[in-house]
Design goal:
With 83 residues, the protein is an all-alpha fold. The chain has a domain of 30 residues. Helices cover 36% and strands 0% of the residues. It is built from 3 helices and no strands. The N and C termini lie far apart (80 Å).
Length: 83
């Protein structure tokens, strides 16, 4: 008795998109800030001390803000207003 085994083709590598922001999967539109504008978002990553992170999170929770990013965007908008 002979057995036939099917071997699938070797998977082809996926080429990354030309735009780096597409590669990291940025959100398409802002849901929290400027809903009327529907401006695309880009990701900003930076390190902060754990104690600062905890203070921000506690402050947001006390004020009923569910997402820290919403509050941080508001603070950045105040500090860097549009010209």
């Amino acid at each position: 008795m002979t057995k036939k085994i099917r071997v699938p083709a070797k998977p082809q590598p996926i080429s990354p998109p030309a735009n780096a922001a597409d590669w990291i999967g940025r959100p398409e539109t802002s849901q929290d800030a400027n809903d009327a504008a529907k401006e695309p978002l880009v990701r900003l990553t930076f390190d902060i001390p754990e104690s600062l992170h905890r203070r921000i999170k506690i402050n947001c929770a006390e004020r009923g803000i569910k997402r820290m990013a919403t509050e941080l965007r508001r603070i950045l908008e105040q500090h860097f207003p549009e010209p």
